[in-house]
Amino acid sequence: MVSETVRAPTVPPTVPTPRKVAVLGAGSWGTAFAKIAADAARVDADSDPSWKVVLWGRDEAAMNLMAETGTNDRYFPNVRLPGNLEFTANQREALTGADVVVLALPAQVLRDQLVSVADAVPEEAVLVSLAKGLERGTGLRMSEVIAEALPGSEGRIAVLSGPNLAREIIQEQPTASVVAAVSDPSAGMVSRVCATPYFRPYTSADVVGVEIGGLVKNVIALCVGICEGRDYGDNSKASIMTRGLAETTRLASALGGRPETLAGLAGMGDLVATCSSPLSRNHTAGRLLALGLSVEEVSARMTQTAEGIKSAPVVRDLARRHGVEMPIVEAVTSVLAGEITVDQLQPMLLGRRLKAETPHGGPEGTNAPGQ
Ligand SMILES: NC(=O)c1ccc[n+]([C@@H]2O[C@H](COP(=O)([O-])OP(=O)(O)OC[C@H]3O[C@@H](n4cnc5c(N)ncnc54)[C@H](O)[C@@H]3O)[C@@H](O)[C@H]2O)c1
Ligand SMILES: O=P(O)(O)OC[C@H](O)CO
């Protein structure tokens, strides 16, 4: 537990102090992020009194138990949550007076959840998406879903993404992340509420790049999980990760994101963490697919959200609409749809026409090696 005497990193003087942070979603990441925000409130050097942090979850009995025991036993047994963290199953109560609203819900439920409480979301609140997925049916990123669900909120939306496995963070293992927003004050405020001695946020103006990095890596992690389930070694996994990052960067660029974002924490950083870790749900789901389980069996076995399963076909469709080649996403989507078996992944990926590694290394799309 972070000591009261440890101070958070210095915050630039222009960053406003929030009064209340509401975290919606008491699953794995919501709980870990609420702990970060509560720890940040305790160590923030300049705020006195510090901000309130409230964690909302839809299961009343579970929230009452959390309030009673100070732990979220379903997700993190034996981890004591900070004493200054409050718990509620009343979403409107959580939102009242909040100037930072953190959305820690799965991508496919975010819109309905927001629409159902739209009138209770304070007008000036900064809205932070933690989800790493694309909405089915619309193909929209979470920042776009929030803007549609809460008209007028466009300038106050932020996204947070990076190598952030909740189970490591809840143990205060050090990590870094990226907070992207179109407005500097929004990014600054969100950074302030999550700056702790074990969590270091960097700001960015590239919302598209940060979101695309976080959501596509889940699909790439499914593929790496499949490699692992088939007992392929590190060469195979490194090849998928590297080429996965190449196709992620192509998609982000086509949508207006910056390639350098994908070389950072929200791109390469998250990809490496997720694809290397047995803690990753997407990686685990891929491994189970390779062991012969059907998508339905894998989904039934996963007790936590593996976003890549639902986002893969949406990413593929988005890429096709923008004329972006994403062979790994195409192949994983075909496996998930039952169109090919995991045995057919290798010929599908390696049997493609030879080409240069990068567009600058030679004429891409021909047999010519990079020159
Ligand atoms: N767990 C991580 O390490 C991690 C890290 C970074 C980002 N994320 C992203 O955060 C998002 C949430 O993931 P998670 O790990 O917390 O998932 P989770 O499965 O652990 O928890 C999801 C929570 O959402 C709740 N929920 C589901 N449907 C709901 C609905 N209709 N209304 C209200 N609540 C509902 C569940 O009860 C649960 O508490 C995902 O997009 C994930 O990719 C997760
Ligand atoms: O467990 P996963 O696969 O959803 O990955 C969790 C985080 O996104 C890692 O940064």
Quick structural overview:
With 371 residues, this protein is of the alpha/beta class. The chain has two domains: 20-205, NAD(P)-binding Rossmann-like Domain (Rossmann fold); 208-356, N-(1-d-carboxylethyl)-l-norvaline Dehydrogenase, domain 2, CATH 1.10.1040.10. Helices cover 46% and strands 11% of the residues.
Structural class: alpha/beta
Beta fraction? 5-15%
Between the first and last Cα atoms, what is the distance in angstroms? 54 Å
Task: Count the beta strands.
Answer: 8
What small molecules does this complex bind? nicotinamide-adenine-dinucleotide, SN-glycerol-3-phosphate
- What is the CATH C-level name of the largest domain? Alpha Beta
Task: Give a written overview of the molecule.
- This protein is an alpha/beta fold and 371 residues long.
- The chain folds into two domains: 20-205, Rossmann fold; 208-356, N-(1-d-carboxylethyl)-l-norvaline Dehydrogenase, domain 2 (Orthogonal Bundle).
- The chain is 46% helix and 11% strand.
- It is built from 16 helices and eight strands.
- An eight-stranded mixed beta sheet has the order 3-2-1-4-5-6-7-8, sandwiched between helices.
- The chain starts with 19 loop residues before the first strand and ends in a 21-residue tail after the last helix.
- The active site is at 217 (proton acceptor).
